[in-house]
Amino acid sequence: MQHGGVIYMKVKNGIKKENENLVGYLLLSPWLLGFMIMYVTPMFLSIYYSFTSYNLLSPPQWTGLDNYQRMFQDESFWQSLKVTFFYVFVMVPLRLFFALLVAMLLNSKRKFLGVYRTLFYIPSIVGSSVAVSIVWKQLFGNDGVAMTLLAIMGIPQDVSFIGNPSTAIWTIIALGVWQFGSSMLIFLAALKQIPNSLYESSSIDGANSWVNFTRITIPMLTPVIFFNLILQSINGFRVFTEGFIITEGGPMDSTLFYVLNLYRRAFTYFEMGYSSAMAWVLVSIIGLFTFIVFKTQNSWVYYESKGGGK
After folding, report:
1. Is there a contact between 173 and 90 (Cβ–Cβ < 8 Å)?
2. Model pLDDT for residues 259-281, shown as the tens digit of each residue
3. Which pLDDT tens digit goes with each residue over 68-78?
4. For a 10 Å CB count at each end of the chain, is N or C smaller?
5. What average pLDDT does the chain have?
6. What residues does 53 pair with on adjacent strands?
7. Over the stretch 213-272, which tens digit does the pLDDT of each residue have?
């Protein structure tokens, strides 16, 4: 009888657990349905279209690897790739540098510290918006504030910053660096987690501020630096709004970002198959870059629980 009671309780608990799981799946079903419709289905369709010739007006025609082979002869593809890599490898380090600098300045007890944090964070919220890109275009355009200030200082320019192929990319990089607020808050939170006892012990040993920064602050921040590097690099590879609104990819394709080139191929020339192939190449590039950075973390990222990065 006792044995039968145990079996009964196990069956009852199993049924109860299955019912709880069913309720959980039912509650998740709206999100799962949206995820399947909005993400998974378009993803598999884009994989299929990348092997076809498709212009939205006629049925897709299977072409195999033609779209991928075409990229090797496409000058705009290589130009957009070069511009995007330049943007990422210049903008991301500068953004992280200023984010860390401001975080260290704010990592102290000062009046109105909350106000300062909010002011520095606001650009990260609105920085990629169309409105801010339009304002940036006005600032560095022919009649913008930058050109006016140069004229007042006796340095008149015939071509605006966004109209000059040598400076156009730098105006967009400046906008990207200006959006350091989110990284700054992450750095600031990490700085507050560093034990003061480390700095106190270092001071007793006679270490100066530079030694504290290089031997304590930076090593303790490496996990956060690693996180910000991955996150900001992925966002950098996906840059679009700034190039589309401020310069439209010009002048002379000097700001033709990869996603902007992809957008043109898809919605200007209606080369949906080719643009789908470009999209998957970008996914591969981001994945490879992330994989390489992850592989390097053992040599420079310090995890306290492991006693170091190695």
Report:
1. yes
2. 999 999 999 999 999 999 999 99
3. 999 999 999 99
4. N
5. 86
6. 61
7. 889 999 999 999 999 999 999 999 999 999 999 999 989 999 999 999 999 999 999 999
Tell me, rounded to whole angstroms, the distance of Cα 297 from its chain centroid.
19
What's the pLDDT tens digit per position in 86-106?
Answer: 999 999 999 999 999 989 988
Give 91-94 contacts, CB < 8 A, sequence gap 24+: 91/173, 91/176, 91/177, 91/236, 92/229, 92/232, 92/233, 92/236, 94/173, 94/177
Asked whether the bond before 251 is cis by omega within 30 degrees of 0, the reply is: yes
pLDDT band at residue 8, thresholds of 50, 70 and 90? very low
Residue count (the chain): 310
User: Residue 96 phi/psi, 5° resolution?
Assistant: -70, -35
pTM of the model: 0.86
Quote the CA–CA distance of 265 and 92 in Å, as a whole number.
Answer: 27
